[in-house]
Amino acid sequence: MPALLVRHLLWAAALCAAAPVHAESFITRLLNKPVPGGVAVVPLGDGPTAPVATYLDRRTMVLRDDGGQWIAVVGIPLGTRPGTQRLAVQEEAGTRTLDFQVGTKTYVAQHIKLKNKRQVNPDPADLARIEKETAEQLAAYRAFRPQGPSNVMLDRPVAGGRLSSPFGLQRFFNGEPRNPHSGLDFAVPAGTPVKAPAAGRVVLVGDYFFNGKTVFVDHGQGFISMFCHLSGIGVRVGQDVARGEEVGRVGSTGRATGPHLHWNVSLNDARVDPAIFIGAFKP
Ligand SMILES: [Zn+2]
């Protein structure tokens, strides 16, 4: 083979190797589960400053991935219909929209028997209390602190324990349909320490009708954990917690049939499947 041609081929091979391969980033590979109750990771380009992305009028998390690309990590509400969804992206150059696709996922049904009838059909005084408590918790989910999370793949908040009720279960209490299960349950004994799965700030603690003793930890950029049915709370509002720091103990306060940890994960005010963030998602 003539030397010039060989050199040419080598040069071409080198160019190929250097060309951007656009392999999926670490975060995309692990978190991109674009289904109702899942997460869409949407690439936003590689400009010098972080774009601001909003979905359903809520600001979404925006991170730089390991390839230097900006990505929006978008929570998809459980009630979303499969099909095209739209993200609004604000950059220095102006505003644009980006479409992404949401696929389907089937969630199974669960029937629960509760002896306490008031927890199935609360009386009027309970309803007033529930309304106030719901508003307080929704406000916590809607907060957006600009600082990003310490980690997006989360630690399990409790050691051991099987995953009991999965996220998204369509629930029937004493035969009556109620809201689907908004979090993930861990079957662990009362008193088990509950640890922050990422660093964050305690933004709400309460003792609620349904959720019992509850702690909200804001991990940053609308990425929020809620732990409920606790027997005890070891933190106060405004406190910064390190990854792995204890926030409370497992219990069965509120509407719970026995001791377990119920953990919600929220992104842009959408409750999403916590299993995604601990590598336990089942499509
Ligand atoms: Zn639960």
Index terms:
283 residues, mainly beta, Immunoglobulin-like, Glucose Permease (Domain IIA), 10-stranded antiparallel β-sheet, 4-stranded antiparallel β-sheet, 3 helices, 20 strands, 14% helix, 37% strand, globular, binds zinc ion
Question: What's the short version?
Answer:
14% of the residues lie in helices and 37% in strands.
**Bound heterogens, unique:** zinc ion
Roughly how much helix do the residues carry, as a percent range?
Answer: 10-25%
For the record, what is the CATH homologous superfamily label of the largest domain?
Glucose Permease (Domain IIA)
Straight-line distance between termini: 52 Å
Low-confidence stretches: 4-21
Element pattern in H and E? HHEEEEEEEEHEEEEEEEEEEEE
Q: How many distinct domains? A: 2
Based on CA atoms alone, the radius of gyration comes out at: 22 Å
CATH topology of the largest domain: Glucose Permease (Domain IIA)
The tally of strands reads 20
The CATH C-level name of the largest domain is Mainly Beta
CATH architecture of the largest domain: Distorted Sandwich
Shape: globular
The biggest beta sheet is recorded as: 10 strands, antiparallel
The average pLDDT value, as a whole number, equals: 91
The amount of beta strand, in percent, is: 35-45%
Number of helices: 3
Structural class: mainly beta
Pfam family, one: Peptidase_M23_N
Signal peptide: 1-23
Keywords: Hydrolase, Signal
Domain Peptidase family M23 N-terminal: 32-105
